[in-house]
Amino acid sequence: MRRASLLVVLGMVALTSIIGGKVMVVGTLLGPERLGIPSDMALPLELLQGSPFSTYLVPGLLLALIVGGIHLGAFILLIRRHPWAPLASATAGFSILIWIFIQMVFVPFSILQAVYFAAGLAELGFLLLLLDLIDRQDRRM
Predict the structure, then answer these.
(1) Average pLDDT in the 63-86 region?
(2) Which of 37, 56, 93, 134 is the most exposed place for a label (fewest CB within 10 A)?
(3) Which of helix, strand or coil describes residue 11?
(4) CB count in 10 Å sphere of residue 131
(5) In this structure, are residues 71 and 20 in contact, taking their beta carbons and an 8 Å threshold?
(6) Can you tell me the distance from the alpha carbon of 68 to that of 71, in angstroms, rounded to the nearest whole number?
(7) CA 78, CA 63: separation in Å to the nearest integer?
């Protein structure tokens, strides 16, 4: 159950990060109107004010390739029960937490930030449970 829970969260974050990053990149390159996205649903460039970015191209690439790629790699390693799966899973959990921390410096609060922060904490928590480093009932007490 612990492994399955970790796989679900890793897979969800991998999938949504890759898709979200791709939408940001393609939307920057083609424009929302060419994608058939209503202008009121497009990501406003005002969210990037005060950040080092003028478009969503680089953030989209970072989200898809770094965050999504790390999560996808951790997911695959965990499926295969590879010895490096715990390290990859920990890296994935920390990568989404770091992404959200940095994003919150530049972007006003969004409920999605809270959801993905919780997902990162869940990944790390499920990993600790999977490794038997924590238990729901501490046996030493």
Answers:
(1) 97
(2) 134
(3) helix
(4) 12
(5) no
(6) 5
(7) 21
